[in-house]
Amino acid sequence: MIKILTIVGARPQFIKAAAVSRVIRSQYAGRIDELLVHTGQHYDKNMSKVFFDELDIPHPRFNLEISGGSHGAMTGRMLEAIETVMLAEKPDWVLIYGDTNSTLAGALAAAKLHIPVAHVEAGLRSFNMRMPEEVNRILADRVSNRLFCPTETAVENLAREGVTAGVSLVGDVMYDVSLYYRDVARSRSDALARLGLEEGKYVLATCHRAENTDDPSRLREIGLALADLALNQPVVLPVHPRTAKILAEQGLTASMKDVTLVEPLPFLDMIRLEQSARVIVTDSGGVQKEAFFYDVPCVTMRDETEWVETVELGWNVLTGASREAIVAAVSAPVRPGSKGDDPYGDGAAASKIVESLSA
Q1: How far apart are CA 114 and CA 139, in angstroms?
Q2: Which pLDDT does position 67 carry in this prediction?
Q3: Which residues are catalytic?
Q4: What is residue 191's three-state secondary structure?
Q5: What is the secondary structure of 43-112 as a DSSP string?
Q6: Residue ranges of the alpha helices (H) in 230-284?
């Protein structure tokens, strides 16, 4: 029996873990024992528990309940707690996802205990070392034994850094998830009716990156851009509690009175809104890809993106945090007719990952 310790802590990781966990339970029962560790990085029930329920992920064997504080303090507390779990459970593999503090803590704890590390979404680079996520993903890749890349670009990034051993191009597990839940969301979510939205006639926005939320001038530009857009069409902004607090502190909430501000949405509601939006405005890597998967134009409020394929193929436009650029891009979104060869694989990334770990 192979024992895999899976580390998750944030919404995107829950979603990716759902695809891999489903393969383990359906095809490797009795051969692989997966123990889920939830660091608690996202503590709000709409950002964690609801995802386990909706995505049919086994509830965590360990819930560390670590959230808040500075990046260093949070990562340090996670590192200590995860190490305790690893010493007790002695897993054969530690499986990490993405680029959060939970990712880095899991990677470092395993490496120091000489436990093999497998990194899903390895090789992504924004080339912006001011982003905490960029630091996390680079360090995680350096100590990983299996590096599961979602794209050819990710493989090339690692090769340029001299990393070739243990690298596999498997495709994107988010694509697996989007295919699996696309129709489920349409049949089970009533988000459009509940919010009074019409198919293809609204803008869906998200904003959570520290580079935007922690910079008053950038956040103001974004808030005012969404307010401008809301004068002519419905704009829905699911707001992370931390972002909502900052908007209120900066007095932006009043300026955004025409924007529909809602709490973070359950997974199926979010997928339903993504599929039916006229255009998506975001700073989230995962949402950029989901827009691409669902053939919805995307405007990314960042100066760079790890998902360069979405830009190269014309489905995504980078605007930075410029009010004028955001409004212009949303007002006349580009919708290319073709995606060429799908850069994110064939929808079987999770199966390839589990097969590799089971060998």
Answers
A1: 16
A2: 82
A3: 208
A4: helix
A5: -SGGGTHHHHHHTTPPPPSEE-----S-HHHHHHHHHHHHHHHHHHH--SEEEEETTSHHHHHHHHHHHH
A6: 241-249, 252-255, 267-276
